[in-house]
User: Fold this.
Amino acid sequence: MGREQTGYDDHTMKDGHDRREERRRGREPQRSPKRPHTQTADRRDIVFGVEPVREMLAAEPAAVQTLYVRGRDQGRFAPEIARVRQAGGQVVAVEDLELVRMAGSESRHQGLVAAVQRPWATAHESEIVGYIRGYAAGLDWLYVPANKDEAIAILRKNIATMTPELAEQTYAVLLAPKGGLFKQAKLDVAGIKTVLALRSQYGQPKKTLTNPAKYYDLGYYKKAMAK
Assistant:
């Protein structure tokens, strides 16, 4: 499914509305090629990110033509894979960098976030400001090339199944200029809009979400980043 924190986390999918239309007209739908890097799908047909993909599958599994999943995550997403296949779609295993390429440099999707309720935030301003400041400092440290070996060692220490080769790949993906972690923990408002649009289209129960400003307050961030 597909991270920025762009939109590629661990899997992504191509919408299958055109394929269903071919079936209604009595023609055999054409499958996407097995190698996704030959795919030239319209970006509007791509849904990326773990939760958006899950919501789309829950709402309309037959709309999915192709589900792209990181090879090592097929076990993790076995239920989603089964649902796609049951609905007539196909599943293609790809590597991290291929998912990033498919999402594209123009893809915007606010990935994982830490969220609290406004009353709690008001009562714990100092803790929030400190958290943001520490998180941003950690990201700054990660982006220093001289810290690469130590960063990979920390990654492997905390994930038992992380091999040296996989750790190298993961480091490259997380710190990629496009599709990697947001420097200084900045929010991507365009990415938040994408999340709201996807939730509005595929989330259950149905609800229209339009104004991203309702879901964030940059006041805490500005205080954390103040010199």
